[in-house]
Amino acid sequence: MTVRRAATASAMCGAFLLAGCSSNFGSNSSAQQDTKGKQSLTVMIGSSGDAETNAVKAAASAWAKQTGNTVTVVPAQNLDQQLGQALAGGKPPDIFYVGSSVFANYAKGNSLYAYGDQLSYKNDFSASLRNSFSYGNKFVCAPKDSSTLALAINTTMWKKAGLTEADYPKTWNDLEKVARKLTTKNVSGLVVDSSYNELGGFLKQSGGWITNTDQTKVTADSAANVNALTYVKKLLTEGALKFPKQVDAGWGGEALGTQKAAMTIEGNWLTGAMSTDYPSVGYKVVPLPKGPAGQGTLSFSTCWGIANKSAHHAADVSLVKAFTTAQQQLAFADAFGVLPSRDSALTTYKQKHPQDKVFADGTAYAQGPVTIPGFTKALTQFDSDLAGLATADPKKILSDLQTNGEQILKGGS
């Protein structure tokens, strides 16, 4: 689903890349740098569509015109595969998208040029985003944007059920009540993807998460996490919550747009999808309900990776700086619906896009993804197990994640 920013092309190592994510694709990082004459750069992106592709091309063209250099923007059909092949072949693009979920795999393989500390405005990125793209105590690459999760509600169905703004769910109990009330023969009260990328919000609201803060310990089998999945299983058992495939939808946004769901949990990528594909469907976005431990949401991001083997590091950094000015980030946000990753730009964004303020506010307390090298293998299995949560034991699912995660953390993957 290219519309889902959480599942951008870099969201998970493909079969080819998984085997090579930690390989020393970039070990020959002392390649001679081309610092004379005009530079010719290639930028590979995993685009969500024409709007994003055209926006990146426009920004690259403006920089090229200003500097006299040339830039070729390549929208990959399969970023994982194409980038993996290019890295393995020793001729990667100069700049490319790197999702936070696979960043550490690239960094461990020495494929990335660490330039983050060269940015005078590096502290304008939130600590959470900087941490998502740091490795070996180095801020490696600049976050290009971010996304968070919130609750989207079909306003027509809400009103028809006799609910008002005062009924917007503030707690898990509230969410369960309204989801049950909104569930009918043809409509599911709540549709949420079975991936940890969305159900993981419940873990945070319960006071848990998959690892500790500095990712030195796996904490998957905590009582807080068990409580969270037990709550989700209860909703599934009651029929108040369904996964997209159960309502013949590809993702929560489609379920909301086709009016098979009264509510869904999705990120701000939902805004563009609804306006483009379902413009007649009215909806309201509100913060995710608080759990036993309070507020919790997840954040997703992608950074501008620079290849260690690029011969144009100075020009690469210059182009990334152009991509990450506050003004350019706001232009990207206007073009394809992402949140700016710079705090200064985010403040302006809230004023320009009040309908997305909930998503923007979520960045203040959002949990970033697990960025342990090789951990995608454990998370892939976790997602598979979560798909069967309705008839499974939450403790068993989390115990398996704990075991698999510890093995990877100890280098046993």
Provide a brief overview of the structure:
This protein is an alpha/beta fold. The chain has helices spanning 15-20, 50-67, 79-88, 103-108, 127-132, 155-160, 172-182, 196-205, 223-238, 252-257, 269-277, 313-323, 326-336, 343-352, 357-362, 376-386, 394-409, and strands spanning 40-45, 70-75, 95-99, 134-135, 138-139, 142-154, 190-191, 241-242, 263-267, 283-286, 297-306, 366-367. Strands 1, 2, 3, 6, 9, 10, 11 and 12 form an eight-stranded mixed sheet that branches. It has a two-stranded antiparallel ribbon with strand order 4-5.
Give an account of the 3D structure.
Strand 4 (134-135) and strand 5 form a beta hairpin. 41% of the residues lie in helices and 14% in strands. The chain has 2 domains: 5-147 and 299-367, Periplasmic binding protein-like II (D-Maltodextrin-Binding Protein, domain 2); 149-298 and 373-409, Periplasmic binding protein-like II (D-Maltodextrin-Binding Protein, domain 2, 3-Layer(aba) Sandwich). The chain is built from 17 helices and 12 strands. By secondary structure, it is of the alpha/beta class. Strands 1, 2, 3, 6, 9, 10, 11 and 12 form an 8-stranded mixed sheet that branches. Strands 4-5 form a two-stranded antiparallel sheet. It has a two-stranded parallel sheet with strand order 7-8. Residues 1-30 have low confidence and may be disordered.
